[in-house]
TrEMBL record:
Name of this chain's protein: Dehydrogenase
One Pfam family of this chain: GFO_IDH_MocA
Domain GFO/IDH/MocA-like oxidoreductase, first and last residues per copy: 151-266
Keyword NAD in record: yes
Keywords (A to Z) from UniProt: NAD, Oxidoreductase
Keyword Heme: no
Amino acid sequence: MAGSGPGGQSPQGGRTLRWGVVATGRIAHKVTRDLARLEDAQLHAVSSRSQGSARAFAEEHGFAASYHDGPSGSGYQQLFADPRVDVVYVATPHAQHFEVVRAALEAGKHVLCEKPFTVNASEARELVQLAGERNLFLMEAVWTRFLPATRRALELIRGGTIGTVRWVQADLGFPAAYDPADRLWDPAAGGGALLDLAVYPLTWAVAALGFPQRLTAQGHLNQDGVDVQNTLTLKYPEGAAAQLTSSLQAAGPGMATISGTAGWIRTGSPLFNPRTLEICGLDGRIEVEDFHEEAEGFIHELRETARCIRAGLQESPLMPWNETLQVMELLDQAREQLGLRYANDLREAGT
């Protein structure tokens, strides 16, 4: 369990935050390992649908309490009713984000929610409105936005190192074995390449070029109505463009290249957690910057969450609500063009 100073104070003098984790899948394990590294965090409670999973997760990571589905309600509802929990990290499948985050906010908890924030923009707007009304912190956990390599790349771009950015190329893909029971392939869970992977290439395009004037989406849906591969083309003023691919069919280099009038920057692979940047000027000379660290990389978004909560902020300036909403709107546009629909959309339409 992460340590705290006397009287519930962290070594830096800020209030120690007591964390709850909702769900016990692979990403929850990874994020929790970094959460345990924070000096101002206490691992208090975890919830899962099954008692065995909740208890095993709590024992492995040193949580004080565990909750699971039962006569007293769902595990996450019991966790949210625990007055000792200050902030929750939500790691459920995509289609459950809206329901779980809404319940957390209604219970008065600050929330860090895995990407994609929700399945559609309507859900995202409702959650942002609720957080605003309850004066609670809420952030989408796009961890790539907080990494040292990403922040360094943005510093170089904004400083004019590669001139005016004219195009971005980014991809992320791997050949995933088809399994209708796996969340990646399950329409009920919000499966598919778009919601699971495309946020990472989009992160680099939006960081370098901002939000586009127009988005065009092409892709392929399988027999279950889940997208297995897609390509997004973003168009900007004066001809600037981005081409982004995400795939559950093929492995790619998993890099982002940002090209400008005075050179280019290329991330190491994978682009969601790059440990290197290549910077090349018009002279063709390539410089490499390294960003190696012991932590998985989630620790940076976790530190930002803690910083914002202690400062009384409702949103992070590094991952503001408006950008989350605009990304969700882009994903809505892409899904409309691909013909990709989920049960959450039916709830939105009231059918």
